[in-house]
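User: Hi! I'm a student and our assignment asks us to look at how structure tokens line up with a sequence. Could you show me two examples?

Assistant: Happy to help. In each example below, the sequence comes first and the structure tokens follow. Example one:
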Amino acid sequence: MTPSILYPDGARESPSPLQDRQFAVDLNLDQVFASVCEGREQLDLLSLFYSPLHDVDSVVYRHQVIADLERPQVLAAVQSFGHGMRQVRELLRSMRSLHNHWQQRRLFIDAVSAYCDAVGSLTDKLVRMGPASRGLDAFTKYLSAYRSSAGFTSLAEDAGVVLSALAQIRYTLHIKGTRVAVSQYLGEPDYAQEVETIFAKFREMPAREFLATFRNTLDMDPVEGQILDRVARLNPGPFGALDRYFQAHRDFFDSGVTAFDRDAQFYLAYLGHIAPLRSSGLPFCYPHLSDRPSSSRVKAVFDLALADKVNQPGSSRPNVVTNDLHLGPNERIVVVTGPNSGGKTTFARALGQVHYLASLGLLVPANEADLVLADAVFTSFGQEEQLGTPRSHLEDELVHLHEVIAQASPRSVVVMNESFSSTTLRDAAVLGRSVLAQLLESGSLCIYVTFVDELAEANGETVSMVVTVHPEDPVLRTYKVVRKPPEGLAYAAALAERYGLTYGAVQERVGQ
């Protein structure tokens, strides 16, 4: 069985990629994944980022591989292999664009040689370094056996024999006007050295430059192609061997090697994406996951998509505020309130991101994280009402939440942002209490950003978290989210007092 560095026990059957990806749009993870996969589109990595894992051992399996890749020597070896495989694919792509039969065959051998070099180099390096992870250790053993196999040995050695025979070919060109004749080399003098000697003196004299730009293309022009075809006719042995080599090895890729190339890029792309953020001081960690709901703890979590936007090359630590969350075993509902533009939605997105990234077996944007391994991350973010749709915005919300509640389990995570904002405060409170009660019954973890403060005190299993403001100036946001009762009226009173809008101030002004 071909080993995999993505799935334990060599399982190649990956989970089917998620088709409904609205949650990623709501959490801005679609932007993160698009950036991570940029430049690697031919490998279809994006589907891997929409294929979450569902058991803790599979997550630990990936953590072990990442830990190996965080060793500089292992990382450099796998990166070098990736560069080599990219060169192989580029050579094959160039080969398919050529028109001359023999030139295609010759470039094919270059691609095979690059492939053999990449495989041999990676094998030697991995054997020498001895990976600790189950995934890379199994692949190292597989790669060693593959390189020692008769098939790979023939692939590499036969290429050398063919190239050596082609290198021995010599022929003569007779050029007269527009006529070109190709014949066997019969010991005629080589005039190349004589021509160079005659023109060597001109190199010592300054001269004006008369530069012309020529089209630089790998493909031969018709004259070059005809010359090569005639050389092949004069040397049927070496060129016949070249043709036979192509026919014998045209499907030279090993499925295990190509699978490793793609799977490794999944890790390398993500690690490369977060490297600048880690260098700037933002924390990433290996989350500790449980397959059953228990207490949850996340320390110094932040919004990865937001950090990507504000982080600039060469800058110091980005101005990204981190926050904490600590929930007891029976605390499953988190209601986030506070003033607008204070970071409520950013905090909720960050928690949704960290749970989903954890389900991919990746490092998460936090200093520490103890989480349930989510079987699904659901979102309900307010969308603009679309003209011409048969249902109202509120009806769309209710239908979507009904579907979420029907699917939610104790291992699900639900992120709701300003739900029912299109209705009255009273109705929003009634609907919000109903939804929270049903989610509480399902056992799901819910993060609910809302303007309805009373939902934060719905029951004893609901945790209230509040976006804080500067104690002396409520207009200034701190973007810190802390666990405490809602203070919406306090903010309103402070703002009214600052701007002279208290009842007494307004009454006095009207009286004047």
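Example two works the same way, sequence first and then tokens:
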Amino acid sequence: MRYLRKFESKLILLGVLSLLMFGILIPILSRNAYATAGLLTSRSIEMSSSVANQTAVQYTISFKTATGGVPLEGIVVDFCDDTPLINTSCSYTSGKSINLTSVALSSIAGPSDTTLAHWIVGNTSPLLVLSNQNAADQTNVSAGTQVTIIITGVQNPNYSACSGGTPPNCSFYARILTYAAYSGATSYAPTTIGTPTDEGGIALSTNQAITVTSKVQEQLTFCVYTGANCAAGGGSVILGDTQGVLYTSGPFVDKSTTYTISTNAINGLTVRMLGNTLTSGSNTINAIGGTAASSATGTSQFGLCSYVSASTAMTLTITSPYNNAACNTTTQSAGPGQTGTPGGNGTAQFAFDTTQTTTTYGASLASASAGSSAGSATGVIAMIGNTSVTQQAGLYSTTLTFVCTATY
């Protein structure tokens, strides 16, 4: 009986030892080939756009190596619809999942060889394989090496249904694996991964683009004035001496008329001028006409020229024949506060084409073309008056109207 109990005790002890050995063997037998791979840290994929189905997207793939002392010749980035888990099947739907057909490698940093020409890009959706087959560079990398890869030309997934979220807000995944030999990367398959050096998974998501809409109303401010500024106003010009008298001995020039334009119109604008020459009853002082001419002392003349004195963004151009280059050199000689001495015209030439200014819409004085009209500008008008000894006496006047038309 005593021997039987000893025998039973031995059986129990052997059973316990067997269970302990079996428990040790289970994790050893169940480890896959990649179980010895290190875990990539600081893993991320930055997308230049997360909008579903967006094309020409740039992805920046970043990670730090876990294993040192081996080369880095192959990198695999496997995009899947369903899971980032390594060595499992990868769900991919052509036409809906990520599209890598047009992907190009923009830059790579971290491996010892960063020459783009040495890296072969395999981009069969959903698999991106980078392999460096340059035999001259087999330098080992250190653990903790920062690797940054930038690819362009990605087309984001365009799921009609997804397990992670509601379209277009859908999750998708990437598996990143590194290989010491490029052949490990080029022979990769989702469930036949070979022997990677390091690995790790990443989750990404497409999302809904937010469209923000607001309205900016059309704007146009057009001010014509003879005062110090638009707020000061002023709408009269005395063309002559302090009493408004013209002399036969020389011209009088008035350049107190200013116009300012501010607009957000982007398709151009036109400033037009309407009116007649100076008249007194049925008598007139001759308009210079449609061809610019210099002052002619002793000849009855009325005309004007214009120039742009300031502009911001807008390119305002004075229309011929009022665009004489010397117009801005004229000086004020007419009106109250002046000496009453003729002059001020310098070398400028003037015009006044009544065949245009008396039409329904008048003559063009200035314009800005499409694309150069949004902004502001200030223009100055210089008017000239001359008279002859035979000009009939009288009070001569005219009303000039300026119209600015903007195209939005």
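Here is something you could point out in your write-up. Helices lie at 2-30, 182-186, 354-357.
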